[in-house]
Amino acid sequence: MAETVDVVVVGMGPGGEELAGRLAESGLAVVGIDARLVGGECPYYGCVPSKMMIRAAGSLAEARRVPALAGRSEVMPDYTPVARRIREEATDTWDDKVAVDRFTSKGGRFVRGSGRLTGPRTVRVGEQEFTASRAIVLNTGTEPAIPPVPGLAGTPYWTNREAVATETVPSSLIVLGAGAIGLELAQAFARFGSAVSVVEVADRILPLEEPEASGVVAGVLTAEGLQLHTGAPAERVSHDGTGFTVSLADTQLRAERLLVATGRRTDLAGLGLAAIGLDTERKFLDPDDRMRIAVEDVARGASGEGGRQVGVYAIGDITGKGAFTHVSMYQAAIAARDILGEDGPPAEYHAVPRVTFTDPEVGAVGLTEIQARERGIDVRTAVAELPNSARGWIHKAGNEGLIKLVEDADRGVLVGATAVGPSGGEVLAGLAVAVHAEVPTGRLRQLIYAYPTFHRAIEDALGRLR
Ligand SMILES: Cc1cc2nc3c(=O)[nH]c(=O)nc-3n(C[C@H](O)[C@H](O)[C@H](O)COP(=O)(O)OP(=O)(O)OC[C@H]3O[C@@H](n4cnc5c(N)ncnc54)[C@H](O)[C@@H]3O)c2cc1C
Ligand SMILES: NC(=O)c1ccc[n+]([C@@H]2O[C@H](COP(=O)([O-])OP(=O)(O)OC[C@H]3O[C@@H](n4cnc5c(N)ncnc54)[C@H](O)[C@@H]3O)[C@@H](O)[C@H]2O)c1
Predict the structure, then answer these.
(1) Which parts of the chain register pLDDT below 70?
(2) Is 141 a pocket residue for ligand 1 (Cβ < 6 Å)?
(3) pTM over the 0.95 mark
(4) Do 270 and 138 share a structural domain?
(5) Mind listing the pLDDT tens digit for each residue in 365-377?
């Protein structure tokens, strides 16, 4: 017999964990279900451990810049503190007790297992079934997508999960995929001494970002000794017990380890979507601007119960609105408000920010030039090179970067912007405000830009839009 609670949260990624805790604190009876670790990919296998690796690798890179700026330096990388930090500080050796306790101390109830919809108001997990009187929230995230390259299946390749858990740096590494995951990890391992080759099927690295950004990052990575193979589909992979061979059309690469970072896949087939009348083969769920994918009117029963709507909500990577922790958290806040019956602005996605934490960082918001043109926008663009700015020139070693602006010329507002540079993700903040609030570019030109900052290059780029 199903047990009735107010809310059931299936999958507790960053958004699900936040929402479940908030609703429990509000006094609702909340059951949170996760098949693996509460908090999801970000704290255990994604953002947090990878950024610890990147922070450490960045310190090595800065030390290597000393000869250009301040004398001599000798750099002897040691991965031990990084692996220890990931194990002890970030992941508690991949144990989520702290996160589970945080949720239960707010009044929530946690069930470990794989949840599945059995009706518009019911979820089954193992032998238990729960009926939700207010809402079901789906936040089941993504898994690494493994491409069908002949020979790959069955080899001991890494995904991001094994890569962040490693205790040692491989002597050599092939990375399949030059998106955010591939490049962030490729550069970090290379800075610790691994001989890294990157294989990307598209004709440039970071193919979803501005071509100018790809160009800057490619230049830096090549200068740091990484081998970049673009427009180069892997034709075959093999493993001989000691290392990997990856065959490209015109060459063969060999390395101790192979990291597959070719994107992510949702797994909606096992979620029981047919129970709410949705196609189970779909890749993403498409929630409305309050994050609802289904709503059922519950008639008021004889006991006086019911008489309200019960919604099924979807948040996070499964919505296809940007596979980022900040999107998952943003959507969680909207869904939580809706479930609690609170007013608030609907979801909007015209200014989703994203940062690839390579060095230089690639911060971007809104549309790229190509996306804007595809939407029929009358586009004006401008690029300002960071090394030509006062701050870039002073910074010298490690100053590679640029600002690119994409303006809707008819409306006179920015619809997209990219900040590549040593602090590209931080410089992005100002550009995100401009795109989000649709600040007229004429007004942006009137702003006083502090001297000598990296963000002063925005003023230079604005001047070139004219
Ligand atoms: C290496 C790496 C680095 C990244 N770096 C960044 C970064 O710097 N910044 C950023 O914003 N994003 C980053 N991301 C992306 C970020 O991790 C995700 O966007 C984020 O985790 C949000 O995902 P989510 O909320 O959809 O759920 P996820 O984090 O994917 O969690 C989903 C949860 O649902 C559980 N689950 C799945 N199916 C079921 C089921 N049927 N029943 C019960 N539980 C289930 C899973 O066990 C998991 O715990 C990175 C990702 C990776 C892999
Ligand atoms: N800093 C961040 O915010 C951050 C960091 C890492 C990941 N993420 C999120 O995680 C998501 C997944 O990251 P990702 O890097 O795996 O995916 P991605 O889609 O960004 O990049 C995958 C890359 O692999 C390439 N590719 C696909 N098949 C291939 C093949 N067979 N051989 C060679 N290359 C192939 C694609 O062309 C693409 O460039 C991203 O969309 C991002 O939202 C965010």
Answers:
(1) 299-307
(2) yes
(3) yes
(4) yes
(5) 999 999 999 999 9
